[in-house]
Design brief:
The complex is a heterodimer.
Chain A lengths: L6 H16 L5 H27 L5 E11 L2 E9 L1 H24 L6 H20 L3 H19 L6 H32 L4 H6 L9 H18 L8 H4 L5 H10 L4 H8 L1 H5 L2 H22 L5 H21 L3 H28 L17 H15 L5 H16 L1 H26 L7 H6 L5 H16 L7 H7 L5 H6 L12 H28 L13 H7 L4 H44 L1 H6 L3 H18 L1
Antiparallel strand pairs in A: 1-2
Helix pairs in contact in A: 1-2, 1-4, 2-3, 2-4, 3-4, 3-10, 3-15, 3-20, 4-5, 5-6, 6-8, 8-11, 8-13, 10-15, 11-15, 13-14, 13-18, 14-15, 14-17, 14-18, 15-16, 15-17, 15-20, 16-18, 16-20, 17-18, 17-23, 18-23
Chain B lengths: L1 H19 L4 H25 L7 E7 L4 E6 L2 H20 L8 H20 L3 H10 L1 H11 L5 H30 L4 H10 L2 H18 L8 H8 L2 H11 L1 H14 L1 H7 L1 H20 L3 H21 L3 H32 L10 H4 L1 H14 L6 H16 L1 H8 L1 H17 L15 H19 L2 H18 L1
Antiparallel strand pairs in B: 1-2
Helix pairs in contact in B: 1-2, 1-4, 2-3, 3-4, 3-11, 3-16, 3-23, 4-5, 4-6, 5-7, 6-7, 7-8, 7-9, 7-10, 9-12, 9-13, 10-15, 11-16, 12-15, 12-16, 14-15, 14-20, 14-21, 15-16, 15-19, 15-21, 16-18, 16-19, 16-22, 16-23, 18-21, 18-22, 19-20, 19-22
Classes of the chains: A mainly alpha, B mainly alpha.
Chain lengths: 631, 482
């Protein structure tokens, strides 16, 4: 049964190759159907694989071929099938399929349609390799592969240099993280002699011999990789720029799947982090600071996709908070619910942008509710879900994170409540400004407003349904017991794959925290409602922004500008110094100087310059004679 | 026998082409290249099957009393190096097919002469023979650049290249002779034993001599300044031979001569060399970032990658050496690929200034796609050959020093910076007056690019045939040390 898993990445790979090499001349309908059905097939196989895992099959390693051998270092190209990878397979192919279908509608009029579908297929292939790889190295194949796909898709409209710059930035910032990951792998190998998850974690003994300081270094190095991929401070700056790509890309890669790779990796390494206090604390604080940063910036953004992008940054931060506090399955839980509602929100925003003829500024929208009923309703569901209102998906997963924070660290707990408050506020601000009030765009735009085609709205409806019920896979004790349902199903499912925290929360505390979270979310929503709905306040135009706090947030704390000053400019300046002075004057000057010295002393250089080769051969032969003489 | 054949065929054909004149010289050269490749496959097959190992060795005394002999032996490491040579040879010859040279028979004759010499260096098991082959290869390439270059100041540039490397090699000669005084034989086995018997301190000095010679040729900062100018002046085929194959003799020398002969010298007194190699990565990457011309960018990016290679090999463990072997193969292919790209651009634009281009992808998406795969190989993306080598090198280097690994590892970031910058500048955006008539690829260019891209991807996805070929030899070599 497990052997079948090889098919899961194979389908999208075949789709990609077919479209790239033989796709010319086929209709868009055919290409779209082909690309989507490869993912559907993968999804079906994933369901089978997942089912066997659910019924308690043992984790299995499926070897595909021999890959790298170097002395004692041996890595096969193999897949690891266990609960963690199988549940990832399920939502990658599931959400991936919906987004493929959506793309057939969204990208229909684009001249690069088949190229786009091919890239999406390739992305899904690498994402599947990432979660299936049975070692850090195989995982790294997927890790870098999705990075390149992200690069190609952010810069999909390559004629505009702005998109290319965003793509390049994403790739390079990610590579900084990747260097961390590589160093982590190097250290891990140096101390354990293996990079296979199997040897390291499942058999379990190999990591216990690592000295504490080294373990911390490994934990932090690997986490630097996660920071890059999952956009955590200080490597978060690429993600908002990545919105330059087509919206389905933002939904699939930059919200639902790729950016959660960092969470996957840390969860996969849970045994490494579980007893690693320092590294775990680093993760908690990077996570919560990123979360606050993203949530506060999102309060002031006016580009519909930028709001969602910073929201993603913020939600990813929360997932890391959970990881750092040892609640690995909780982080995975939030990854899954987030995939549902954030994909939904992005696709919804895509539908809005589609209807608005490419407009992304919410200051030019308003009143779309009556023109786009399906988009409106599903977007509202996504907004409620992310805001954390009972019983929508986001409520349960976020509540679990808040609960863990309450147990572990009260400061982080308070901060996470602030994030929740901000989240509910900016999402409803976005919702009211987009769908309520009067239309603020041009007449032409208003004339063309329309609901999106079925291929786009059906995925929205399915994702909306998932955003409602998705939370039930992790019902808390208090609720599950009450409703007679299986509680903490996900924790039980994942208990063999990741380390489980030992939490002993009373039912009362659990309920109290849920009440607090609900009150925070609802009052935040009410506040947003009173401003943007009741009083009809509009977002400020750029020139009207007065308060310095508003400017600070609107300009994203000027972090990009700071990086430019402290990193990019110095690198360019040093390189320039190398190129203009060091290389020609200093180093080559020395070389030439040595040559001239010879010239001055013996005039040999001049003779050589005349191009007489006989001399070189002479020198060569002298060398040989020297050998013979020395014998 | 096969070994001798590998050297004799190009040598004989070089003579034949010289004699027969310019007519069909290039076809003959190409056929020679293909035959060489087939012989290489045969040799690999013999090695893998394990039968008739005598086919892979040849030993005949030359100057008996002095312990010099024509000794050749093909182990896994040598086979990969020969494969590098014979894989690239037909590609390089074919890449020059659409060009008109003066006296093509001399050009191709010299090329084959050089090939024979390099294969000699990669296969000999005699220290002095290595030195002779290593030096001799310099002569044909010197003429190839001098005669067929169009660059200004080529006489001066080629002279500097020639003198510099020749000068560097003298240090190797001194070191070699020093060890010979103890071994009284140039057979590598004897040199290993004599070298290892030296004190670590002595080994350190002998190593210094070897390293300076190899560092000039690899090249490693700060001995590299001959290289960009030489690449720039050389006809593209010459630059391919240099960067793709010839300079690998030096890194191969580190594996074949230095590590087994002077293990303690490298381990205890070789830190400075590893530091230089790591600095080389940073420095050359910085230089690559500021280049305006694509060919110079290739030159500096090459130095950066070879810095990782040198440091990794000198770490002296199985991962470093295996990574080194793989990276030499991969770097050869990718660099030749980049030069093919350069040729295609230069033939259409008559310059290679990157900022004057742009939008080529819009006009010629196929070319942009193939170029992109090569760029990905250069930035060592997994599933390309570049990754396997570079990852193993870093894995090896880290066992020596984590600090140096971080420095050398910056190639992961900086490589992406300069490669993506240049790809973007040339290929992306909208086309301008210079690029809007960028002609489609012709059949020859397509073939070349597809072959190179296929090699990059196949070796990246399935490097096992190469790695399992060299792995036993690497382990034998390391056993000889401990």
């Amino acid at each position: 049964m497990e052997k079948l898993v090889t098919l899961v990445p194979l389908f999208p790979l075949a789709g990609f190759l077919y479209i790239i090499f033989f796709g010319k001349g086929f209709s868009k309908g055919f290409i779209g159907t082909l690309a989507s059905s490869t993912i559907l097939l993968s999804f079906i196989v994933s369901v089978l694989v997942f089912t066997t895992q659910m019924h308690g099959a043992h984790p299995a390693v499926v070897k595909v071929f021999d890959w790298i051998t170097a002395g004692s270092f041996k890595v096969d190209f193999s897949f690891l099938v266990d609960p963690l990878s199988s549940i990832y397979l399920l939502f990658i192919t599931g959400v991936g399929f919906l987004i493929h279908v959506y793309s057939t509608g969204y990208m229909h009029d684009d001249e690069g349609f088949s190229r786009f579908m091919a890239y999406l297929n390739l992305f899904v292939f690498f994402m599947l390799i990432l979660v299936l790889g049975d070692s850090y190295v195989t995982m790294f194949v997927g890790w870098e592969g999705v990075g390149v796909c992200s690069f190609m898709l952010i810069g999909f409209w390559y004629k505009d240099m702005k998109n290319n710059d965003a793509a390049k930035k994403a790739f390079i910032v990610n590579r900084i993280g990747d260097l961390g990951l590589i160093i982590g792998m190097c250290l891990l190998f140096a101390y354990t002699g293996t990079l296979k998850f199997d040897d390291l974690f499942i058999s379990g003994s190999d990591i216990s011999g690592i000295p504490g300081g080294v373990a911390t270094a490994i934990g932090i190095s690997l986490f630097i990789g996660a920071m890059g991929k999952s956009a955590q401070i200080p490597l978060h700056t690429w993600l908002p720029d990545a919105m330059a790509g087509p919206t389905p890309v933002s939904a699939l890669i930059h919200a639902a799947t790729m950016v959660t790779a960092g969470i996957y990796m840390v969860a996969r390494s849970s045994e490494l982090y579980a007893f690693n206090e320092v590294a775990s604390q680093v993760i908690v604080w990077a996570g919560i600071l990123t979360s606050i940063l993203g949530a506060t910036i999102a309060l002031t953004q006016n580009d519909i996709k930028k709001v969602l992008a910073y929201s993603t940054v913020s939600q990813l931060g929360l997932m890391f908070v959970a990881l750092g506090m040892g609640a690995y399955s909780t982080a995975v839980f939030h990854v899954i619910t987030h995939a549902f509602f954030k994909a939904l929100l992005f696709l919804g925003s895509g539908s809005v942008i589609h209807g608005m003829g490419g407009e992304q500024d919410i200051r030019r929208m308003g009143g779309l509710k009556k023109h786009m009923p399906v988009t409106h309703l599903t977007f509202l569901i996504g907004t409620i879900a992310i805001a954390g209102v009972f019983p929508f998906a986001g409520f349960f997963s976020k509540d679990q994170i808040v609960a863990v924070a309450f147990e572990e660290n009260k400061i982080v707990f308070i901060l996470s409540l602030i994030v929740s408050a901000c989240t509910a506020f900016y999402m409803f601000r976005l919702y009211f400004l987009t769908f309520h009030g009067k239309f603020r765009g041009t007449h032409e735009q208003e004339h063309h407003l329309h609901e999106s085609p079925k291929s786009m709205t059906i995925p929205l409806v399915i994702l909306a349904a998932l955003s409602v019920v998705g939370g039930f896979i992790g019902l808390p004790h208090a609720v599950g017991e009450e409703m007679g349902m299986h509680w903490h199903w996900l924790d039980h499912f994942l208990q063999d794959a990741v380390v489980m925290p030992s939490m002993h929360m009373t039912m009362g505390t659990e309920l109290l925290l849920m009440v607090i979270a609900t009150v925070v979310a609802l009052s935040s929503i009410a506040y947003a409602w009173s401003i943007y709905k009741k009083r009809g306040v509009l977002a400020d135009e750029d020139k009207d922004m007065k308060s310095s706090a508003q400017k600070l947030l609107y300009n994203k704390y000027w972090i990009d500008e700071i990086y430019d000053t402290i990193i990019r400019k110095p690198v360019d300046r040093i390189s320039d110094f190398f190129g203009k002075f060091m290389e020609p004057k200093l180093i080559d000057g020395l070389v030439e100087g040595t040559g001239s010295l010879t010239k001055a002393t013996g005039g040999i250089f001049r003779m050589l310059q005349s191009g007489s080769l006989s001399l070189y051969i002479f020198v060569f032969i002298i060398g040989l004679i020297a050998i013979l003489l020395s014998l | 026998m096969l070994t001798l054949l590998l050297i004799a065929i190009p040598l004989f054909m070089a003579g034949a082409i010289f004699v027969m004149g310019s007519k069909s010289a290039r076809q003959l050269a190409l056929i020679t290249g293909v035959v060489e490749l087939l012989v290489t496959f045969a040799a690999i097959w013999v090695e893998k099957s394990g039968n008739n190992p005598e086919l892979l060795t040849f030993n005949k005394q030359w100057i008996g009393p002095l312990g010099i002999s024509y000794a050749f032996s093909l182990d896994g490491i040598s086979l990969v190096m020969v494969l590098l040579t014979t894989l690239l040879l037909p590609v390089i010859i074919y890449s020059s097919f659409n060009k008109t040279f003066r006296n093509p028979h001399v050009f191709y004759g010299l090329m084959l002469l050089m090939i024979a010499s390099m294969i000699g260096a990669f296969t000999t098991s005699d220290g002095l023979m290595f030195y002779i082959f290593y030096e001799f290869a310099l002569i044909p390439i010197y003429f190839m650049i001098l005669i067929w270059s169009h660059a200004e100041g080529r006489a001066r540039i080629t002279l500097k290249f020639f003198l510099y490397t020749l000068f560097g090699s003298l240090f190797m000669l001194v070191s070699l002779l020093y060890v010979y005084q103890h071994s009284h034989s140039f057979a590598l086995e004897d040199l290993y034993a004599a070298g290892q018997a030296l004190s670590a301190y002595e080994q350190g000095w002998v190593f210094a001599g070897f390293f300076i010679a190899f560092a000039v040729k690899i090249p490693v900062f700060p001995f590299h300044t001959w290289q960009p100018a030489t690449y720039n002046a050389a006809p593209t085929a010459g630059a391919m031979l240099l960067a793709g194959i010839m300079l690998k003799m030096a890194s191969y020398g580190l594996i074949r001569l230095v590590l087994p002969m002077l293990p303690e010298g490298v381990a205890e007194y070789g830190t400075w060399a590893l530091v230089l190699a790591s600095v080389s990565v940073l420095y050359a990457s910085g230089m690559a970032i500021v280049q305006k011309k694509f060919k110079l960018l290739i030159a500096y990016s090459s130095i950066a990658h070879l810095g990782v290679l040198t440091a990794g090999i000198l770490s002296g463990n199985a991962q470093g050496i295996q990574g080194g072997v793989m990276e030499m193969l991969s770097h050869g292919i990718i660099t030749v690929g980049l030069f093919v790209v350069y040729d295609i651009i230069e033939s259409r634009m008559s310059h290679d200034e990157m900022h004057r281009m742009g939008g080529i992808r819009e006009v010629n998406p196929q070319f942009a796609f193939l170029f992109f795969v090569i760029v990905m190989g250069s930035v060592a993306l997994p599933m390309t050959s570049g990754f396997v080598g570079e990852f193993l090198l870093l894995l090896g280097l880290n066992q020596y020093s984590t600090a140096l690994t971080i420095v050398a590892g910056l190639t992961v970031v900086l490589g992406a910076v300069y490669m993506l910058r240049s790809f973007q500048a040339m290929m992306l955006g909208t086309s301008n007056a210079h690029t809007q008539h960028f002609a489609p690829l012709n059949q020859q260019e397509k073939t070349l690019l597809y072959i190179i891209v296929a090699m990059i991807v196949i070796l990246g996805v399935y490097p096992d045939p190469i790695l399992s070929l060299s792995n036993p030899s690497v382990e034998t070599l390391l056993q000889g040390i401990h």
